[in-house]
Task: structure prediction
Amino acid sequence: MSTREYSAKFENLDEIRDYVGGLARAAGFSERAVYAVQLAADEAASNIIEHAYHGRPDGTFRLRCEYADGRLIMTFLDRGESFDFSNVETPDLTVDLSKRKIGGLGIFLMHKLMDEVAYKVTKSGNYLTLIKRKD
Result:
């Protein structure tokens, strides 16, 4: 298990994608699964930066990763504004992009790309856990 801390800046997304991609490759995931892990981590971090901290670069978040029992587990912890995952509507992908309602696409993608997605709010912060099982 390893934990890294990041400032809430979009400039850190490349490093995050490289980090989780390297872990997934080292664990023997297929390139398709590596891409899914990277994209889901990118969406999770982007949501934290944009919504939990509203673009304030003084915020920080932690990313803890571990590989166990054929699963890559990524847990994001932030202390920004919490968010109610259950109130997010599934985006209508049939609507023309220019007319599509804004919001919810990142969460939709995380659910599509990962095998498990869980979010909980505690006194110590907001925890988003993304799990990908090895093919």
